[in-house]
Give the backbone structure.
Amino acid sequence: MRKVFFLAVFTIGLLASTTMTAQKVNMERYITLAVKNGEAINLDFKAYTPGTPVKIVSGSNIRNITVGTKWYDISFTFTAHSSEMKVYGDVSGFACNDNGEKVTAIDVSHNTQLETLYCYKNQLATLDVSNNKQLKELGCFDNKLTALDISNNMLLRKLSCSYNRLTVLDVSNNVKLKELSCSGNKLTTLDISNNEQLTELGCSHNWLTALDISNNEHLTELDCSHNRLTILDVTKNAKLTELDCYDNKLTALDVNNNTLLVELNCSENQLAALDISHNTQLVKLSCSENNLTALDVTKNTLLKRLDCYGNNLTVLDVSKCTQLTRLFCASDRLTTLDVSSNKLLKELYCHGNMLTTLDITKNTLLTKLNCFGNKLTTLDVSKCTKLINFDCSSNQFSSLDVSNNTLLKKLNCYDNAFTTQALDDIYCQLPNRNDSTQMGLIKPIYDYESKNAYIVDATNAANATAKNWRVQYYNKDNTDIPATKGQYNCNSTGVAEEATVDEHVSLQEKK
């Protein structure tokens, strides 16, 4: 019996000793930060195994925690009691992001088993990861890095080094790379010919004049916008679902092989033609500010958003695009626009064309309508009961009925043919916003020098202000027009004193 007892005691002691040993912090593996004394530093950690002990030291401030295989706590902070902070332990993932100027340097050379490092949005001028050959994910974007050597990190799968000051980036050794984001640097070249496993590439806002992606057949997302590309060949990238080549110098773009495209943004280039007849999966298309004279979207029946403004389009058939929720076809040369089939439309921007008619009676979900700068004489918005923002300026309206638009918050209606009576009617029809914290905003006049200034002055704008609306000039940066002189009563059945622009001019000539 005594033997059994002593054996049990020995076993318990051995287990306790083993547990204590297992919980001992590995002081030979550590990460060092240069920090701002007295500041709370954002930190997070994860380990290879559950119950991994980690020790954080900064001056007299010491804390021991236990870390598991998942991130410890995204909101964890540790206050610096000196200009240095050390994190000891078998940490496999380390994050010190979003500290800004509170973190100016990081040394990870003594944690060679590190697999994940997030040190973005700090003030790092250098970053040495040459000893971290196990690194699989590195996020160091939004720092002040002028160089980044990742030649030893051959297991790297994700790299985000955007918005630094890099002029060169060599990823030739990183053949396992699947996601690369290097936008917002000063790169003039980018060789990704060895990165055949790439699925996502973001290299926007650089100085690239060429980009060869012929070896990257697994690419599904490509953002090369805001560069200086004159040619972009995506014919080998049949798996692309998102392509953003906005703001380059492309004169041609062949997307016939990219039948899986869901989003395409090729705006602000020099395209004279764009064939999207094979891209039947497109949901978002932006091809604005090019030199397009024609655009056929009849095959793109899944389109929900179409931006094609700033081209030379004279015709646009969107009758087959019944899923459209946003249409931006402003500043083209359209003389007609039929949106009767687009019953899901919520935003319509067709300003700056040559439209003489516009039927939106079927577009009952509209919340935003910009049709200014056309030749419209009438417009029925009575069915658009969800309308919030409405700009019908610079047309030829003599009257406008907004009595059904009870959600209206903003109305621009300057430079039309409204009489004093017509404007007074509009003021009276505006919805009462006294129960709202946000005032309504109506702009019936461009500026104080406008030729219809005397008409606006003769109205009773108090009918609008009484309902929590501001009556302002359009071109005066939120400047309210002075108190008007009219006495029109919204409950009156009488007719306010009227004057048209032509009558006013004639009267002045007689004088």
